[in-house]
Amino acid sequence: MNRDALELPLFEAEEDEEVAGTSLWQDAWKRLRKNRMAVASAAILALVVLFCVAGPWVVAHGFDEQDLAYGARGASWSHWFGTDLHGRDLLVRTMHGGRISLLVGLCATAVSLTLGVAYGAVSGYFGGRLDTAMMRVVDVLYTIPFMFVVILFLVLFGRSLVLLFVALGAVSWLTMARIVRGQVMSLKQSEFVEAARASGVRHAGIIFRHLVPNALGPIIVYTTLTIPRVMLEEAFLSYLGLGVQPPMASWGLLVSDGANAMTFFPHLLLFPGAMLTVTLFSLNFLGDGLRDALDPRMRT
Amino acid sequence: MSRYILRRLLGLVPTLLVIFTLSFLLMRAAPGGPFDAEKPVPAEVKRNLELQYHLREPWCEARFLPALREPGLSTAAERAIRSEAPWSSRVEKLCTGAFQYGWMLSNYVRGDFGPSYKYKDRSVNEFIASGLPVTMQLGLIAMCFALLIGLGAGLVAATKQNLWQDHASMGAALLGISVPNFVLGPVLIFVFSLTLAWLPPARWDGWRYMLIPGFTLGIAYAAYVARLTRGGMLEVVRQDFIRTARAKGLSERLVILRHAVRGGLLPVVSYLGPALAGLFTGSIVIERIFNIPGVGRYFVDAALNRDITLAMAVVVVDAVFLLVANLVVDVILGLLDPRVRYE
Description:
The structure holds 2 protein chains of 2 kinds. Chain A is mostly helical. Chain A is built from 13 helices and no strands. The radius of gyration of chain A is 23 Å and the shape is elongated. Residues about 1-15 of chain A have low confidence and may be disordered. Chain B is elongated, with a radius of gyration of 26 Å. The model of chain B has no long low-confidence stretch (mean pLDDT about 80). Chains A and B meet through helix 6, helix 11, helix 12 and helix 13 of A and helix 1, helix 7, helix 8, helix 9 and helix 12 of B.
């Protein structure tokens, strides 16, 4: 049989989709917009990102600019969030800390997304003994107290940002793998997969062009919920002094410094702590909203 | 049932072996030895130390790199010998590693975690014996807070679905999940210890010392428990046997407390295993904030001091504890839910 002849008409039909009523995504979008808390969270998140990314260009102080004679003082007109023990402007440091925290959240989530989706999709698609073996590995990894291993790893191999991304990402892909595997296992029986296989698409093509895009809903939901978790873990490690190293800042590090000085200067704990909490809160709310919108059955 | 438990216990063995091997490999792969301290010790002393800790194996040296056996060999001389014969050096290291692995594994199996690298007069077992009870107390208190607050809030939310009580408790739960405990802890110290002076800010000396740390650690889990309780209860309340109970004329209180709770709380029970794991991890930071002498604190100090034998033992002991806890939770789940079958 001539494969080339078969492949053409089958896979260019996707553009006609708009004719047929509302798609899953339009439905989800409608549901999400109705959820006022989720919309508000998205708006707050946008503001936080703008604050952290664009803020340092607007504020006149540098994040490592010291003024030891000025020292730590509360909020004033020239320093909106006050200054820390070295006389550094806390507003700029909070912005810079936010950049790092958000960056770690995104990068580590990207690592976990890539690993988890690839692993879960391969395991679910091929099934059989390979699937059993791969899932057994996940089961075993689940029982390892991972934060302990990450801490050991960071202490022994240096505390670089890249290692932090990799370590946190490598810890959080397990659940993603399980979710994707489940989705792929139920999808791989569908006719469109059979059609793709019949027209000679390779395994990799079927997995990543046909199966994974169809499992996107749960993947998006879980990714949104992974970001705040990873950010929390980064803050946790920075709090212990294992994350970002001074004079750089991350929210966890600022909170740690603030907690040490809170007896006399509570503002040092208050501002970074509040920023971190607000961001995590919005991310969690948005994740919940997305789940309700994309997968109403999973509602808790 | 007992066959199931036995099979699960046997299943723990490979898992534990993986955990042990992983932490052992991390320890071996770490650059620098434990005795390359700031203050160098005489070569002979260092050699004896390394022999005692099985970082050096005379048999492997004699076989693969005999030049190392010369008495009084300095670190620099050793490095020169190793760089001259990179392959023999690598083989010798592998051989020593294999010996050390076997030695440590047989010690671990007998429950002997060996001496601490850092505190030469104390064994790792002594650290664990003094730290583990404290951490377990902390975890227990946190768990009590989590269950009391979480179940209460979850039940209220489920019985008042979509009313303001529901929205309030679920909003509070999401807030509880989002506030990092290392932000909450210092804030609570600031309010209740430094400002109001009601409770002590640090240390571990009786129940008054346990309240703030326990609450700080438990509150995030209270939030998860509340969400799971609400979800589980709402699922059960829709089922037929609840309608029957109501139709019989039972009061709403009895319907909820006698009939719905039993099925509705299953998700909470199955969450207890992962929650325990989280409590252990969380205790690392809580013990640091409140200056509590538990294994979490020992672990961080050990990691920072490169006291790897202690750090490794904490990881393995934690893993054993968690695996057993998960097994217990699974058994309880089976007792509560007749639909669960032990395979």
